[in-house]
Request: fold
Amino acid sequence: MSFTQIEKGHFGEVPLDGLRWGILAAWPAAIHLGNGKLQTIIEERANPRQRKAIETITHGGETEPGSLIWQVFATTITEFLPGVIQGGGESIRNPVTGAPHQVRVIMPTGFEFTESEVVSGKSKAGGPIELELDGSHAHIARIHWSTRGVVR
Reply:
């Protein structure tokens, strides 16, 4: 599961500033073995051109092979689904004091992001991919992507 908010961006001539979207994906075995299902969720205020642009991105379209996580995932998906999902995240907690505890992951050459913060996630989805998680692993990252991959 992944949630994204676009601070400023576009896909070709289509502005995507401020839009939120996410994906929910499931595979019957290891991801690289394929036969996955992917659900793209786009907030209601997106217009039809914006929806099409975000679907193209999440389906790995117009992206150089191997350059972004969405394109890599798309090669393992056999079914793209519509759907609705709810989710959120908060800082993980120090197990002794209960205080917020920041943990960062740095991947200088990662195709997902360069740096992220590990958080505790909560998710609920119905439909073809049912899911209910509370206190699960999640991360938040500020990213800059292009059709050639992560912009550094």
Q: What stands out?
A: The mean pLDDT is 89.
